[in-house]
Amino acid sequence: MQSINWLEEVEKRKEAMIKDTQAFLQIKSVLNEEEATPDAPFGKGIEEALQYLLHKGNTDGFLTKNVDHYAGHIEHGQGEDLVGILCHVDVVPEGDGWTDEPYSATIRDGKIFARGAMDDKGPTMAAYYALKIVKELELPLSKRVRIIIGTDEESNWKCVDHYFKKEEMPTIGFAPDADFPIIYAEKGIGDILFQLKESNQDTRGSMTLLTFEAGRRLNMVPDHAKATVVFENAIDDFTKSFNDYLEEHGVEGGYTKEGNALFLSIKGVSAHAMEPDNGKNAGYLLAGFLHAHSLDAKGAAFVRFVQEKLAFDSRGKKLGISFQDDITGDLTVNTGVFSYNQSGVSKLGVNIRFPVTCNTDETRVTLEKLADSYGFEVVEYKVSKSHHVPQDHPLIQTLQKVYEEQTGDKAELLSIGGGTYARSLEAGVAFGPLFPGREDVAHQKDEYIIIEDLLKATAIYAQAIYELAK
Question: What is the residue range of 280's domain?
């Protein structure tokens, strides 16, 4: 059989692919539990994105299946064994400060700008077109290839949990949802909820913290924080102090007065929780300011824990849980959700990325003891285990060969703090789409994918699908 120029095949379909990618990105597929129904368990936008892909698969003659609106798949090929390509159509909330409307899928400077362009709708379309090329070239396969479409990857993974209860598990596969060359190891991911105990709830002072809110997701660094403080005395000294604090830290913020109440806000910089130091946590900034003032007992207990045990310590040293190994590097900590209410429940949502060899049970014990000493308790501790595929596995060997042939570069093996659907498979790795040296804009404002890179990734995926399934 003569060799195939995969990139040439992608170029033939370039215009159609860009158009389809834009249409896909224009669907606002953010989790919306308020509008959840049995036919749209994660909201209308996510369901629309799932249906868009399945309809496309149907139209192009693939075998498709909608698995109770939790997930779906698009399949091609024959054989006993199944190769999985694990993608997801949900995206994180868009956040503020975009140059263009976040779902416009505007093309500028050879890039498509939209929430989900890089994570994970752009790469999902690349995988789809890769499979389409293999199908249209009528290449003989000895295995089935299935694009598995998740809908809840950015939150709780209910989609793949549900999917794999009903559908078979691929023997090998990859997720186009991270970096090239190949990610063979992923950290464990822990979602921890600290709750302030009731005993702190009955005291008020001359300055009372009524509310404190920051962050929407545990896996994002909060880019905005707000608080309401009520005073019994004059508040001018406090407002001057706040302005000085903003200037000292070089951040934007402001306040408004209403009677004896003051509404404070601070802007930070969003980033993915796998490396919190890439962002600036607005919750930490606001808590740091409030901690320097005499608040009521409950408010003081809340900001004290944040300031003394969490703030600007991405490696968990203050918590007493720092850890690192040679495979996946440092343990990281991100406080993604701050929710305080003077007359109600007050919680802190923390996301921890555990190195492959870290004992997460021991970490839990340490956190529970520490929380207790600060008047908090751990009310939730959910951990998704770390994932590691041996370097000599045939899946790794095949993908290394493909990557090196397509790029001319060495296919180094990487480990990440992020979690991809690859960890759902016993032998699964994350494979692109971000090329070495490119800026990682996932979960950030003005997220984009470079069109040239999208096409190149598609060529790599097409050859990978063929080599894994031939």
Answer: 190-384
